Records
---
Amino acid sequence: MAKLYFRHGTVGSAKTLNLLAVAHNYERQGKKVVVIKPGFDDRYGQTEVTSRAGLTREAHMVISATDRIEVNQFDGVHCALVDEVQFFQPQHIDQLRDVVDQKRVPVICYGLRSDFRTQLFPGSRRLLELADSIEEIKTTCHCCNRKAIFNLKSIDGVAQLDGPSQQVAGDETFQPVCSIHFTEQLDLDSYESLNETTRDREMA
Ligand SMILES: [Zn+2]
């Protein structure tokens, strides 16, 4: 039975490596896979899916915010694999659900659950709502041996809570951290500004 999968993990949890391994296994059996990525993750070029371990391949579909994922593109496909799914729009997740249900194609989505402010990405939220199967790809905290659950953003070694959550290129670095080290690494000012932002949003 085909399912919609959400395999989430922090940065550095080898999600893309896992995706590439699944694609390799299907293709070794002579089965057809479709690799899909969002249009604005341009760290490695528009069409490439690249893991930090260095493996890479071309995506078959690059989906921009306004694109529609049509179910008819999945005729004869044995498995669809989605990289960086957190950058997809919620309606894309509904469209992937249709691919599973109408074409009986398993769709395996890899991505972050939450951004560097610990808040769900809209696409990840929709996937948590619609997925048949939710699995965690685990890795350890950058600072200790606890499981990492958050993504800490740093610019020039200083932890940050500012900036857009969809920015993936630039000078910032992201590290997997546990909750204790996430809090420790952020200075109090950043934390207070987050709380103010949250309060403003609640009052608006
Ligand atoms: Zn830690």
---
Amino acid sequence: MKLLGCLLTANDCYKTKRTIRPKGVMVHSTGANNPTLRRYVQPLDTTPGQEELLTALGVNRNGNHWNRPGLDVCVHGFVGRLADGTVAAVQTLPWDHRGWHAGTGTSGRSANDTHISFEMCEDDLTDPDYFGRAYRTAVELTAMLCARYGLDPMADGVVICHQDGYRRGVASNHGDVYNWFPRFGMDMNDFRADVVRAMSDEDEEEDDDMVYYQTLADVPEYYRTAVDKAVEQGALKGEREGVLNVSEDLCRTLTVLDRMGVLDRKG
Ligand SMILES: [Zn+2]
């Protein structure tokens, strides 16, 4: 899975700075025929790596992306096509931020208070190749989040879609993802099972896909000492609001350098 970071800092939801303790992942799909990530995700002048992100995502010339005030929706991530047509995931809120994605359910409660959320960008819902790639990326993203927050994807109510949330009384009445998955013979039971498989695959194999960490807090414990030192020494430039956008490969390299004592040198 390719995972980019482009926080929607101009969205009113981001500005609330409210956090949650994640207890699950809610999968959404957009309900509109536009599989491109640039439709929803755009960096601003203040976004770290703006130029690289614009190259990767492509430019939205319609001004209708979600990195702006005045919207009542915001999710933690998107799955869709990059400018080159490949399918990737992009993180758009800190994972423990309280998102605006589920509305309120019949119980009066909301999955906004408990669930990390992401949107799968829909196409016209007839392309099995795009569905397969988007589904796979969604599985891998969910597996990563479950691993990070110690969530059991098979436990009741943990990995659910928007419509599941409605049936459970914790989300508004939207059909996603059952408007899409069944067209290709899949449902959320298949999805949960695939997340479990992805998690056990991750345990067994070395993951050679590039992973990026947005902030120092996102950097796993075992790399943190070395990354910390590199930031302290000014070798790794921390950007606005502590955003690093550092790759796992770089973290690994820094850890090796740290073991050699390189990062302890003064001046
Ligand atoms: Zn939804």
